[in-house]
Amino acid sequence: MAGYRPKVLMFQGQQGETAKHNEYVVELTKASDLSPFENWYKIVYYDLDKFDVREDATKILDEVAAFLIENRNVKISLSSSTDSRATAQYNEKLSHNRSKSARQYLIDKGVNAKQLAKVSWSGESVLVNDCGDGAPCSEEMHQLNRRTEMMVVEVKK
Predict the structure, then answer these.
(1) What is the 3-state secondary structure (H, E, C) of 10-75?
(2) CA 32 to centroid of chain Cα atoms
(3) CB 82: neighbour CB atoms within 10 A?
(4) Domains plus CATH for the chain?
(5) What is the mean pLDDT of residues 123-148?
(6) pLDDT at 10 over 70
(7) CA separation for the pair 155, 97 (Å, rounded)
(8) How far lies 103's CA from each of 8, 62, 126, in Å?
(9) What is the pTM of this model?
(10) 51-107: per-residue pLDDT in tens?
């Protein structure tokens, strides 16, 4: 819908559960409620099988920290993912650790934890390309899935 931004919701069935048709209520956020930050979006990447913050990611996270310290009325979400290599259970834990690592980095830089409104992780269930289990993908393609995405989710007036 024009003028709205969807709220990202992650759904994952239980292990071994068969796919079924479900209906979901989707919450939309008025883009004007987030203005002028409605298009603010940052992403950091991780090395294979790692959750520590890379040197290239520190520059971006430092920018995020400065932004949040300057804009105390803004809350962001952090959502981490992995590529499809390793088991789904392992990747769930790895993406959780990536979210915790990025969150802690921001807090260590002086960000108020209350500004980190939603911290989530999705393992390998939210790929940005077709690099699922067994797919022939380059390292560059897998790299795109090893990430933490950050976006503004609330601006208090």
Answers:
(1) CCCCCCCCCCCCCCCCCCEEEHHHHCCCCCCEEEEECCCCCCCCCHHHHHHHHHHHHHHHHCCCEE
(2) 22
(3) 31
(4) 36-155 (3.30.1330.60)
(5) 92
(6) no
(7) 27
(8) 18, 12, 20
(9) 0.78
(10) 999 999 999 999 999 999 999 999 999 999 999 999 999 999 999 999 999 999 999
Phi, psi of 117 (to 5 degrees): -65, -45
Contact residues for 73 (Cβ-Cβ < 8 A; gap 6+): 155, 156, 157
* Rounded Cα–Cα distance for residues 126 and 8 (Å): 11
The dihedral built from the CA positions of residue 122, 124, 130 and 131, taken in this order, carries a sign that is: positive
User: Both tokens of residue 86?
Assistant: 């390793």
Cα–Cα nearest to 124, from 98, 150, 95: 95
Cβ–Cβ under 8 Å, residues 99 and 80? yes
Helix axes 88-108, 55-70, angle to 10 degrees: 50
Q: Is 45:146 a contact under the CB 8 Å cutoff?
A: yes
Closest CA to 49 of 14, 99, 98: 98
